[in-house]
From TrEMBL:
Protein name, per record: Gluconokinase
Pfam families documented for this protein: AAA_33
Gene3D superfamilies: 3.90.1200.10, P-loop containing nucleotide triphosphate hydrolases
Stored PANTHER family: GLUCONOKINASE (PTHR43883:SF1), SLR0207 PROTEIN (PTHR43883)
Amino acid sequence: MDISTLIKQLQNPNSYPHTVQDSIKVLQTHASAIFLTGNYAYKIKKPVDFGFLDYSTLEKRQHFLNQELVMNQAIAPDIYLEVLPITIKNDQVKIGEEGKIIDYVLKMNQFPQDCLFINLFQAGKLEKKHLENLGKVVAEFHKNTQTNDYIRRFGNIEMIKKSIDENYERTEKYIGIVQTEKQYQETKEFTNHYFELKQNYFKQRQQADKIRECHGDLHLKNVCLWNGKIELFDRIEFNEEFRYVDVMFDIAFTIMDLDARNRTDFSNIFLNTYLEYTGDWQGLQVLPLYLSRQAYVRAKVNSMLLDDSNISEKEHQKAQEDAKNYYHLAWKYTQQHQGKIIMMSGLSGSGKTTMAKYLAQDINAILIRSDAVRKHRGNIPLDETGDNELYSAAMNQETYKTLIQLGEMMAKEGFNVILDAKFDRHQWRETVIEIAKKYNISLTILYCYAPLKILSDRLSKRQGDISDATPNLLKQQQNNAQDFNEKEMSYVKIIDTTNNWKEQIKDLF
């Protein structure tokens, strides 16, 4: 039975072993078709072979449906149920019944389409808290994903570069149509230089076990909020090169998808939450490459639609416009910037972190909290309270040393970075000042201030934060803090956080 006939047959309610809704809705892509029946959704693979994806035989379709089931049950067990045969008997197509097997189908629990992150976004219902929670979910997902010697080899520069070079080769014919020669060459040169000059970054990623069995297609259409729980689904099963990747490759899809929709504040929240919960700030060294790659792939896909004579003029125009925008975004990610460092300072409860989070979203900065660095170094989950050893003098030294090293690395890579800690000692403040001078990096110190009574009240009311600070520490912190000297004061902006602090920092950056 050809695919068109099969799709038509599966729109017949009599094909299903249960009652279905009045009209079965069909969602199609180039490689699959999904039938929404009410309580359940059924997915078939189309008999196609695109090289990177091969569903051309019945055996391959059964194999990849089983692969999809196993891989996605691990992350979305509430959605993925079972693979069933599609049979025909007495000219009647049935699912899961006896008869001649003509194909296979993946059965899933059906969730409302308005639960998808993309539809929540388009309806204006996607909130900042959703992106924060997504960052935690993806961090936990990556923590539990598999890696081994076979998977790690997919992090070799030769394999990564080959895939990216193929994108450039496939899109060269669209120069002058949806992107300029200059844009094409500059984007391509960026990636070539990245592989040439930063080879050690990729080796470090392999050594740090950051090449894992990831999702492979982690954009807003493959995330849903269902029954109060974020679910990742539709993990890539058909191509190892697409899922045996750097974890930064994975999150770059989500970041790029949000940036393309002009919500860098959302992508910033997602990225900073992910980094905080994984401690993988070193991954930022390869993130620009993967951001550009993901935007370029989306541009390529839209470009290829321009060759499809079956789409309408309206669809053709949209594909052309989308391709132009994605090519521009891919190019934009390659543009180098001068990084800056913002050093937060002040006692616990002074509003440093609240201000830092606001600033990070406003100027698209990487936020690193000393609380997170400390707990990662102590191998303590962020949500657990640390013991005395975690706050020893030796751990304080290690925490600030790591925090400053990370800040230096990111600023030199062109990121805006916010270092969120008390920074109450000359030695740490002056270390950052010397780094800023050495590399000509812009530095601002934001000293947050509020009366002790207010600080104490804030700490008493604090909930759900990774900081372990309590009101009884305040007097000791005050006594131990060293006042800014004349050299330091030239960088300092004092912020009274009992007043409108947003107005006080409005024109600083």
